[in-house]
Amino acid sequence: MKTINLTVNGREFAGAPVEPRTQLADFLRDSLDLTGTHLGCEHGVCGACTLLIDGVPARSCITLAVACDGASVTTIEGMDDDDCMRALRAAFSREHALQCGYCTPGMLASARDVVLRMPDASEQDIRFAMSGNLCRCTGYVGIIKAIQSVIAERKAAGLGVVQNPRTELGPVGSGHARCSAAGHAGASIASRPQAVSTVKAAGTAGAAQAPAAPPAVRQSPADAGKPMTTLNQTFTVDFPRDEVWEFFGRLGEVTTCLPGASLLAPATETHVEPKLRIKVGPIVAEFEGAADVERDPANYTGTIFGSARDTRSSSATRGEIRYDLVEEKGGGATRVDVQVGFALTGSLAQFSRSSIVKDIAKRMTDAFAENLRARLSQARTGTPSDGTPAPVPQVSELNAGALVFSVLRDRIAALFRSLFGGRRG
After folding, report:
1. pLDDT interval class at 419 (50, 70, 90)
2. Which residue intervals define the domain 2Fe-2S ferredoxin-type in the entry (predicted)?
3. Are residues 42 and 60 in contact, defined by beta-carbon separation less than 8 angstroms?
């Protein structure tokens, strides 16, 4: 963990805790609740996450938060009183330059730079300068007209003076990668010291680069850093802890308890090569990877380090799973506490940012627990003479889309119960 000092929308944050691999966009959204910065491609291509660093437009999805140590960051929320932004918002509304609005914060940030830096810009100049911001709704006609109208208004008002905030060469924020160690005096950030991680800071002019592809297998906790997202799940099985611990040592059987999972090769005591088939609407992903396991018999804990890549797209994931087995009911039952940390990149990364992921993880955990109980029950009653694993309900693919709709349906039902249930009472 590092601490950084930066100014966001005019407010100073001293000693803000942040993981070295956290992107600026994640830091702003998750730690400061500044959700006006939108995340689209997460590869620095679409421009939805564009904001200002020291007055210069920058892609916050590929800019490391630690690289902004000492910098001044301005998000769309901090431009309410900006004269140029006020004129642009009015022009965007007047020229119908927005529809769904997802690209609009980044579009406005880039448009403001064009207006101030290019007061004599032609339509061709504007189109070229705005080509880094993508819009799937408008066709750009209204956007170009809005920018042209603001340039004309400012020129008529005598404000057509070139304003270029860039004072040095190199990537935006390149001179700010000077973060202090964790525990810096006065380390505080509002009341939410949350942080998310993605890429290690380089501390040089090339700091804000896209994340490198994960290794095939994570060899040790120090090699790949902490995962991006952490989920905690708990379930209980009515079997003694020693039986559950012994079963968790059979990696092949444990892996195939997960819906949609199969094995690419026979598992060993410390290594497994799984395949996970996931369906999200029309998208079908087949993740193939490898994982290594470290177990601590004295404390009944284990940690799995692994990574996988989708064979059909550029999506990849890596992470770690830690489990703790705790005795309950006088030793007749076992509580399994699971902590899952993961980082997902590529086309499927968009599905890892919603709070619904926690509900989906809970349902997947329930399915895993049911399969685990079935395997443990079979182990007690005896294994077939041919030595095959105990039969459990097999799921050829994990239908994440169906889980999403199921979660949404339950949430809507709960909302209606809370709204109308009390009235009946």
Report:
1. low
2. 2-79
3. no
